[in-house]
């Protein structure tokens, strides 16, 4: 029997196909508002609360350095209004993107089903806000079909603390009655995912190579395992977590 009771999966790049669409939508909104950045910089900071990402870029454009590892340790109030304007434009672009096409990473549904068959609850979490998360869930039908027990986004926390803070994982544990982080694994494809799982103290912090972020972008952050995609997760659990 598996020692794992809860698997927390990232969405874009981990269970939902991402051909750089998220990066491109974030970058387009920044460009439209004259916010200096690059696609490569956007890639490095994906997986975080998108308003906080834009606050970081606004602060940086005003000469104030920041580290994304500190995103959830406090944001400057003077950057919020502009960052929120950029975010709302991004949200429009992102929703239109996902309404046109949402596909799962091959094997995601089968992995969710395998987890349930082996007594493991399934949660998703994301740096997306509620509206984008709902478009994904409605399109793929994962909650409707009982494949995902809980989908968590940054708006579940009153302070909207996203990754790399651990609070979305703790929220999922509370809602699904999992009482020890030693029974939890986190699966994702970004530095923010790796830091989130580590900050939460998860038994396994598993990186997947299916996203648009290369392993060199997130592999330098603490993780316990690397697999090609979620398709290989059942075999990993069976061999490493039983």
Would you kindly provide a written description of the structure presented here, covering whatever features stand out?
Helix 1 crosses helix 4 (80-100), helix 3 packs across helix 4 (80-100) and helix 4 (80-100) runs parallel beside helix 6. The protein has helices at residues 21-32, 39-44, 50-61, 80-100, 108-117, 130-140, 167-175, 191-200, 215-218, 233-240, and strands spanning 6-10, 121-125, 150-152, 184-188, 204-208, 225-227. The protein is globular, with a radius of gyration of 17 Å. It has a 6-stranded parallel sheet with strand order 3-2-1-4-5-6. Strand 2 (121-125), helix 6 (130-140) and strand 3 (150-152) form a beta-alpha-beta unit. The chain has 10 helices and 6 strands. The longest helix is centred in the middle third of the chain and has 21 residues, at 80-100. By secondary structure, the protein is an alpha/beta fold. Helices cover 43% and strands 11% of the residues. The protein folds into 2 domains: 6-18 and 103-240, HAD superfamily/HAD-like (Rossmann fold, 3-Layer(aba) Sandwich), CATH 3.40.50; 21-100, Orthogonal Bundle (DNA polymerase, domain 1).
Which features does this protein show?
six-stranded parallel sheet; 11% strand; DNA polymerase, domain 1; alpha/beta; globular; 6 strands
CATH class of the largest domain: Alpha Beta
- Ends apart, CA distance between termini: 6 Å
Provide the structure class. alpha/beta
Domain module tally: 2
Instruction: Name the overall outline.
Output: globular
Provide the succession of SSEs. Answer: EHHHHHEHEHEHEHEH
* Corresponding CATH architecture of the largest domain: 3-Layer(aba) Sandwich
User: By CATH's scheme, which homologous superfamily of the largest domain applies?
Assistant: HAD superfamily/HAD-like
Radius of gyration: 17 Å
In helices, the fraction of residues equals 40-55%
**Beta-strand residue percentage:** 5-15%
Compute the average pLDDT.
92
User: What composes the largest sheet?
Assistant: 6 strands, parallel
The counted number of beta strands is: 6
Number of separate helices: 10
CATH topology title of the largest domain:
Rossmann fold
Major sheet strand order = 3-2-1-4-5-6
């Amino acid at each position: 029997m598996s020692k794992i009771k809860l698997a927390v999966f990232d969405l874009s790049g981990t269970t939902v196909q991402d051909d750089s669409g998220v990066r491109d939508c974030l970058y387009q909104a920044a460009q439209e508002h004259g916010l200096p950045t690059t696609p490569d910089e956007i890639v490095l900071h994906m997986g975080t609360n998108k308003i906080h990402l834009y606050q970081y870029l606004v602060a940086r454009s005003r000469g104030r350095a920041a580290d994304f590892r500190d995103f959830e340790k406090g944001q400057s109030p003077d950057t919020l209004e502009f960052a929120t304007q950029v975010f709302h434009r991004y949200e429009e672009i992102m929703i239109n993107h996902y309404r046109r096409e949402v596909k799962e990473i091959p094997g995601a549904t089968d992995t969710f089903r395998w987890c349930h068959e082996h007594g493991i609850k399934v949660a998703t979490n994301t740096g997306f806000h509620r509206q984008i998360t709902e478009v994904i869930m409605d399109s793929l039908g994962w909650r409707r079909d009982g494949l995902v027990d809980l989908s968590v986004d940054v708006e579940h926390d009153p302070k909207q603390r996203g990754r790399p803070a651990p609070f979305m994982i703790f929220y999922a544990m509370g809602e699904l009655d999992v009482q020890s982080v030693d029974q939890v694994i986190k699966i994702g494809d970004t530095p923010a995912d790796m830091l989130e799982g580590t900050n939460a103290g998860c038994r396994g912090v598993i990186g997947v190579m299916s996203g648009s972020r290369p392993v060199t972008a997130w592999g330098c952050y603490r993780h316990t395992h690397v697999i090609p995609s979620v398709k290989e997760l059942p075999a990993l659990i069976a061999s490493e977590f039983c």
